[in-house]
Structures are given as structure tokens and as C-alpha cells.
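Journal club side-thread
Mid-discussion, someone asked how the predicted structure for our own chain would compare to the paper's figures. Pasting it here so we can look after the session.
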Amino acid sequence: MNNTLRTFVLLAALTAIFVVAGYLIGGTGGMLIALVLSVGMNLFSYWNADRIVLSMYRAVAVDETHPDPLIRNYVADVHALADGAGLPRPKVHVIETDQPNAFATGRDPAHAAVAATTGLLRMLDRREIRGVMAHELAHVKNRDTLTMTVTATIAGAISGLANIAFFFGGDRDRPGGGFGAILVAILAPIAAALVQMAISRGREYEADRHGAEISGDPEALASALRKMETFAHRTVNETAERNPATGQMFIINPLTGRGADNLFSTHPNTGNRVEALLKLAGRPAAGTAVPRTARSGPWG
């Protein structure tokens, strides 16, 4: 399934969940309101979801004139990798958090942005940072960023609707009544998370492989993933915890497992990703430091 069709199917699924939730809460009237809102959200998300997510994480745009040499090198390397991959240079951002992580966003390569955390820039060496950013540019090149960003905003809205249903309940004269509101509160976030999970695992393997091709250094990304997996879950990313639907955008799952949302991980097992990268580099994968907790075949 190509990314355009995948995005269409995803939007249709999330819209259907949103409309059904509206029906369970408010009957036909609620369904019509939810339908209008979902269409509006789809259009708004297409044009503005990247700005919403960057603003949510208080991402700061940076360039090669920044006084910090780590950030200057980061920007220069993103530009060099984009040039080598035949991509327009994306806008480059930094997020102030100790958790080592990164993501890409934007509706197409001409309107893309990448963001890395200060924790990532401090923890990884320059070669590893290049490996991570090549992975993010692979998402841009594969046009995954529209799917990821729109999913984050609409799935977040579904979770918000579920919270409204939980706190305010449903009209007993409407389909489902109070039980419908409880059902929405329980099932809507699960349904949204399952949709995310269905599209995310193979995509990460593909971005690892294409990112390794862009950087020419699969071992650098493998090393970065090992370090990030070790430290990411020891450091709380408060914004991600408040907005778990955005977690699927990051290269490593930013959720610490404190809440139920983390039960629906959108990321493949990091050990499997490392093994696949080392195999690509022609090296044995035995002895990787990342525990194997799930089984997913290389490259999805």
C-alpha cells in the first residue's frame, strides 16, 4: 500500500471512530456534529498539524549561526544529509528535554521539519546524531510525515472526545445512553491506538533501512538506538505523557509506561531494529544490549 492510500485509509478509519463516538454520546445529532468536526480537523490537520506538534513540544527553530557548536553541527549535518538524499532542506528544530529522541513532521518534503531533543544532542556523538537524522529524513523522503502528524492530531482529538464522554456522560435517551459514554471513554482511545500501531511498525523498519542508505552508516544508527532505548525510558517526557497520541512520531517510544497508553506501543522492538541494521552492515547481531521483548521481522 503506497503512502497516499495508507494516509487516506488512516484518515477514514479515524474519522469513522470519531463519528461513531459522536453517535454513542449524542445520537444522530452528535454523529452529525462529529462528522462536521472530523472533516474540519482533517483539512486543518493537513495544512497545520506540523505547526501544532512543534508548538506543543515548544520546539525552537535553529540554524548554523547558533552559538552552541553542538547545534551548529547538528544543523550542518541535517543540511548535508538532505542535500545528499536529493531532498529540500527541512526546517531544523531543538526541543528542550533531557530525553534523547527525535522526530520529523510536515505534509511533504517541501514543507518538512525535523526536531531533536537537547538530550539527544548531548548524549550521542556526531556520527550517531547523523544516523538518527538520516532516519528522520527517510521518513520525509518516504512521505511518512503527513501520516504520522495527522494521526497524532486526530487520534489526540478522539482521546479528548473520550474524556468528555467519561466526565459528562451520555444522554440516557440517546443510543447507548450512559453506557455508550462509558464505552466511548474506554474503546475510542484503544481503537485510535490500534490504528496507529497497525501503520507504524513496518514504517520504522523502512526508515531505518533508508536512513542507513542516506547516511551510508547503518552501525551509527544501531549504536544510537541502543543508547536511546537505554536512557529514553528513564527520563520522563512530560509533553509526550500528556499527549500520548504524538508518541508514534518519535524514533524511540517516548512514553515511560506509567499509563495505559503505553500498552499500545507503535514502535517495533529496538533489539530487532538493531539486529537488522547490523545485518545490513554485514556484522553479527549477537550481543546487542537491547532486550528482546517482541518479535517483528526485519523491515516489517
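Post-session note: The first strand starts at residue 60 and ends at 61.
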